[in-house]
Amino acid sequence: MLQIPCPWCGIRDESEFSYGGEAHITRPINSEELSDDEWADYLFMRKNTRGAFLEQWQHAQGCRRWFNVQRDTVSYKISASYKVGDLPPQEMLNDK
Amino acid sequence: MSKYSIFSLAKQAINYHEGWEKVWRNPEPKKHYDVIIIGGGGHGLATAYYLAKNHGITNVAVLEKGYIGGGNTGRNTTIVRSNYLWDESAHLYEKSLKLWENLSQDLNFNVMFSQRGVYNLGHSLQDMRDIQRRVNANRLNGIDGEIVEADELKRRIPILNTSSQSRYPVLGASFQPRAGTARHDAVAWGFARGADSFGVDIIQQCEVSGFIRENDQIVGVETNRGNIGAGKVGIVVAGNSSVLADMAGFRLPVTSHPLQALVSEPIKPVLDTVVMSNAVHGYISQSDKGDLVVGAGIDSYNGYGQRGSYTVIENALAAIKELFPVFSRVRMNRQWGGIVDTTPDACPIIGQSPVKGVYINCGWGTGGFKATPGSGYVFAHTLAKGQPHELNQAFSLQRFSTGSLIDEHGAAGVAH
Hints:
heterodimer; A: about 100 residues; mainly beta; 4-stranded antiparallel β-sheet; two-stranded antiparallel sheet; 1 helix; about 35% strand; B: about 425 residues; 8-stranded mixed β-sheet; 18 strands; globular
């Protein structure tokens, strides 16, 4: 079981959390100008990185707040967690 | 390739079984192939087999980074069924089931396909309505199915807890009599042997690290055993689909998750069918060796690590124990995870990729094993003709742009 550091509540067991997939996906503002392919890209296409990955978690059975985590998808090691709106760790900025 | 039969067995027995020939060759990669298939799992090997058998294309290589059948083909719970709700998926999986029914004869290799039936349990009135809808849809599509009430279910599976006091009351089930299980390794080996006999090169320990481009077209692959040219490239790598798509230069709506399964110590025959429950995310059957084979739901998070979290198997086992109290003292022997490639509509993606020369077969999620022959059959057609077979036309990558998704979430009788 993962031990996930909630920025508000500290380290808790994974079973208290629900998963939100890839982080930093922003809804396009000019949605009426997008082509079907561009809209599909926003809706469905995902990075699905093998390695260091930025993802969203919600502390569903705790403070119920969303936050972001940097986790390695092979070793499952969590190296950072930060609040929504904050910048990811320096080395991940290009990946955002 | 020598044919397996009672006579070849007797002949080899005289020589103490020391004269059996290798089941497939171990060739060095050639400079160029008409078709390269990346991924030596069941689906990739089946694709190679049908390319050679149905389309006469034999200058084919299957590249496998580990050993064949060592990924999800060797990690699933071996269930085969075709009771899907929507026409598109029902036809595709039913084609696969029809191929399963004759596969041992076709391959001259015993894949131990056992049509012991599959039950999908209903635990609420809504579950039962969904089951009625699905069974009706199946029968309209020519797929066998029946609705079994709780009393009859208790008679057929005496160890199932159908008490109204149960944590997950069982109101009934759908039943597909032609469904069942098969021997997972044998499927990979049988297709490998069949493909090899047509001259297909199966190259193991050969990992693809990049693609070779000419103008806009992919014309080969870079591997740890050198560059290999290709007329067409088919990607059939399940959990690693996004990694290969990224190398080729296109995006997929796929996320990779661990899916866990476990087997118990072997016990005497106690369960002669397959029982699945969508609501409690557990399914169970008994292998020919006697072990109980238990499958769980997927782990929620993205992962490539071929292992998952303990909470998921704890939930699955708790549910199995509620449904089958008699198993409460059975000890579990082994537990593992495979990496499944899930899509937003729980349906596969089979067809051309946006990159010229590259074809993709992925997104089978938690239910790829049952589709092995059918997947190979339609993907071979797609590679050979350069356009999809009518059975996989609806499963193109473009459906995510056009919006014609095939929503099989839960409709297939089990959680995806």
